[in-house]
Amino acid sequence: xxxxxxxxxxxxxxxxxxxxxxxxxxxxxxxxxxxxxxxxxxx
Length: 43
Description:
The protein is 95% helix and 0% strand. It is mainly α. The chain is rod-shaped.
């Protein structure tokens, strides 16, 4: 049953993608805010 395995792999990739997005979105946001604060302090 290669079709079932393909669907399973597709679901796994989607799960990992969604997890990475939800995990890295706030991380990138805070990093961006930190960079902005550093830029303001330098001026």
